[in-house]
Amino acid sequence: MTDTLWAPWRLEYIKSVTGQPTDCFLCDLAQHPEKDAANFVVRRSPFGMLLMNRYPYVNGHLLAAPYRHTPDLPELSAEERADVLELAVVGQQLLTQAMNPQGFNIGINIGRCAGAGVPGHIHTHVVPRWNG
């Protein structure tokens, strides 16, 4: 295991983070289904969407996000939580079929101190993993 995560393709994202409030890109995507292909939205469901991460840690990194802008799990309804989890399951299935990873990290970062890059809009990461 390395001490440093090397992901130079994320530099554009890192430089864009100012700490200032900005528009929520997940809300923008939720409101524009006609732009799904251009925005890498893979699937939509009644309460959320599955999309490719523009600044992935590894190839195949997906996000499952509710349409509703909220920072925390308890603020989502049980239906919304179940729907977003099902999108994560679909993401895992799609990645298994397309990339044959040896494992997955699937998780949610709540709050900036926990690593949330979009702390105001909860989302689930689906990250394929390989040995080595």
Give a quick rundown of the structure.
The protein has 132 residues and is α+β, with helices and mostly antiparallel strands. Helix content is 26%, strand content 19%.
Reconstruct the topology from this structure:
Blueprint lengths: L10 H6 L8 H6 L10 E4 L3 E5 L9 E5 L11 H22 L3 E5 L16 E6 L3
Antiparallel strand pairs: 1-2, 2-3, 3-5, 4-5
* Helical content class: 25-40%
- N-to-C series of helices and strands: HHEEEHEE
Structural class: alpha+beta
What CATH first level would be assigned? Alpha Beta
Protein name: Histidine triad (HIT) protein
Pfam family, one: HIT
Keywords: Nucleotide-binding
GO molecular function: catalytic activity; nucleotide binding
Question: How would you portray this structure in words?
Answer:
The structure is a single chain. The protein is an alpha+beta fold and 132 residues long. The chain has one domain (23-129): HIT family, subunit A. It is built from three helices and five strands. The protein has helices at 11-16, 25-30, 78-99; strands spanning 41-44, 48-52, 62-66, 103-107, 124-129. The chain has a five-stranded antiparallel sheet with strand order 1-2-3-5-4. The longest helix has 22 residues, at 78-99. It comes from mine drainage metagenome.
